[in-house]
Amino acid sequence: MKLKQPTRRELQFFLITGTVEGMLTALTLVTGKMLRPGESITGGLALRIGLAAGFPTIVVFFTAEYARQRQELLRMAHQLNMTQRHRLNESSLGRQAWLESSVYALISGLCSFGGAMVPLAIASCIPGKGWPAAAVTAGCLGGLGAGIGFTTSSCRTCWSVALMVAGGFLAALGYFLHIV
């Protein structure tokens, strides 16, 4: 079975949502550790946080995308006045939906893994305690926001500020929750 080439819009959706989700998850999980006196981020922690962000993303995105595609097949069957609407889901179109959903979920999961791990791994190389990881992650969110603004021909500064503010809120939540 051949995988359909994703449109630019579909690919952007899965890349952006995965990456943003990973960065925000990293901020939420490790801010308590980052800002405690005497604590620092290690490469091993960055890898573990990346894995903790990536795997749930795969499950969430597969579930959502596969359900969306199967619902679309049911809608098509209804429009074609098929008496047995489940037939399209059981056909090669149903298998195609499963394959596409799997690939898209893997893309989002890998982006989430990278979005969580890369800023923390960079921060683990910077001397100093606490603030470098938060600053690097906020900077990465700002850069990603500028990229989103560029690709959508909208305000780069607005996107950057919005993502950095969201990161700040989740960092504050992570600080008070002390998850890691």
Structural class: mainly alpha
| Distance N to C terminus | 43 Å
> Radius of gyration over alpha carbons?
20 Å
Biggest sheet statistics: none
Mean pLDDT: 85
State the helical fraction. over 70%
Care to give the gist of this entry?
81% of the residues lie in helices and 0% in strands. It contains 6 helices and no strands.
Overview of this protein structure:
- It is a single chain.
- By secondary structure, this protein is an all-alpha fold.
- It has one domain (8-177).
- It is built from six helices and no strands.
- Helix 1 (8-34) runs antiparallel to helix 2 (43-79), helix 2 runs antiparallel to helix 4 (92-125) and helix 4 packs across helix 5 (131-151).
Question: Which structural traits does this protein have?
Answer:
180 residues, mainly alpha, 0% strand
SSE layout:
Elements: H1 8-34, H2 43-79, H3 87-90, H4 92-125, H5 131-151, H6 156-177
